């Protein structure tokens, strides 16, 4: 089959690889119909995720048609269309029983920090990803959700990650009704966090980024206020936002940026160029300093292990609640499917580009460079893009 292949920092190509086969009775093989590229894939592409091996295939946001089932699979049959959560989870361990599928303790033999994840380096188990013609999906009775017959793949594709991720980010901010919310990052995750904040009843939602085209889109897609931190100056952004929220700051701040944040020379130098902290902790610091005393900080942007220059003294003295995690995708899928079906969220709107699989390197380039108005790229491995 043809599949994306990692060749080293900033280099991916499409290569021939052996077709995946059933390795365990609860596996299925999927013929991939759509595979999206995520901000998390950029951390891989840029070489910031430990143990990302040459030749591995990325891709943890995909839909597909069941091509083959292992002998113990009971819930799926050949021909079923499914959307698959990015976390690989066993469904029965201590964490899975508590809905924490992103913390499953049976699917990642390489670390006790996170569960297995499709196409996300050997530090999350070394599973092959879905930016390919075919992919093996383990624990097939646990993760995949059938796509309703009357729905298109693209309507549900983002239930694999970014919609549940945004929703969990808003939920970790403990939005219950009327809260003021500032979201750092107008990428796909920030956009779905904004939508979800409204769904949970937020009173005011503002998104911060430094890319005008993304802030324009955020206003259209999610009906939010926006601030470009380049316009006010990175040094002034915290005070500027506090001023906008009664001088105290908002009730909730969300970091939907992660380890490659821009805006602080110190964090970028130490975290990205010298590897002296695990990525730039700029957005976390802005969240902690912007939010009002006693407020909530929700960190959904991804950070590597384990050291960071996070202003914990500020967080402690302000009495903040800090919550963070990989998204536990599976538990949100049925509920968010309902929001899509009932027309409250049209997730397809974030797709700015579609490419055939062969053009995956180009798709990575424009998504990474944030060029050509790129919000989200989707690969179409079979048929017309
Ligand atoms: N926790 C999870 O389960 C989970 C799931 C999916 C993605 N993620 C993470 O969420 C983050 C965002 O993903 P995405 O797909 O939206 O990525 P993206 O790269 O498309 O978006 C990130 C945005 O942040 C902006 N930005 C950079 N520095 C900033 C700053 N200091 N303040 C405000 N905005 C800033 C960028 O301009 C960009 O628009 C990534 O770290 C990704 O790995 C986490
Ligand atoms: Zn993702
Ligand atoms: Zn488990």
List the helices and strands and how they pair.
Elements: E1 2-8, E2 11-16, E3 28-36, H1 39-45, E4 61-69, E5 81-84, E6 87-88, H2 94-97, E7 116-117, E8 134-137, E9 145-146, H3 153-156, H4 162-172, E10 180-184, H5 188-199, E11 204-209, H6 212-222, E12 225-228, H7 229-232, H8 237-244, E13 252-255, H9 265-273, H10 282-290, E14 296-299, H11 312-318, E15 321-324, H12 329-341, E16 353-356, H13 360-369, E17 377-380
Parallel strand pairs: 10-11, 10-13, 11-12, 13-14, 14-15, 16-17
Antiparallel strand pairs: 1-2, 3-4, 3-8, 3-17, 4-5, 5-9, 6-7
The chain binds nicotinamide-adenine-dinucleotide and zinc ion (2 copies).
The site of one zinc ion (ZN) has 6 residues, from loops.
Q: What would you note in describing this structure?
A:
The chain is α/β, with parallel strands linked by helices and 385 residues long. The chain folds into two domains: 2-161 and 328-380, Medium-chain alcohol dehydrogenases, catalytic domain (Quinone Oxidoreductase, Chain A, domain 1); 162-324, NAD(P)-binding Rossmann-like Domain (Rossmann fold, 3-Layer(aba) Sandwich), CATH 3.40.50. Helix content is 28%, strand content 21%. The chain has helices at 39-45, 94-97, 153-156, 162-172, 188-199, 212-222, 229-232, 237-244, 265-273, 282-290, 312-318, 329-341, 360-369; strands at residues 2-8, 11-16, 28-36, 61-69, 81-84, 87-88, 116-117, 134-137, 145-146, 180-184, 204-209, 225-228, 252-255, 296-299, 321-324, 353-356, 377-380. The strands form four sheets. Strands 3, 4, 5, 8, 9, 16 and 17 form a seven-stranded mixed beta sheet that branches. A six-stranded parallel beta sheet has the order 12-11-10-13-14-15, with helices on both faces. β1 and β2 (11-16) form a beta hairpin. The chain is globular, with a radius of gyration of 20 Å. Bound molecules: nicotinamide-adenine-dinucleotide and zinc ion (2 copies). Nicotinamide-adenine-dinucleotide (NAD) binds at residues 38-40, 42-43, 161-162, 165, 184-190, 208-211, 214, 229, 256-258, 261-263, 282-283, 300-302, 326-327.
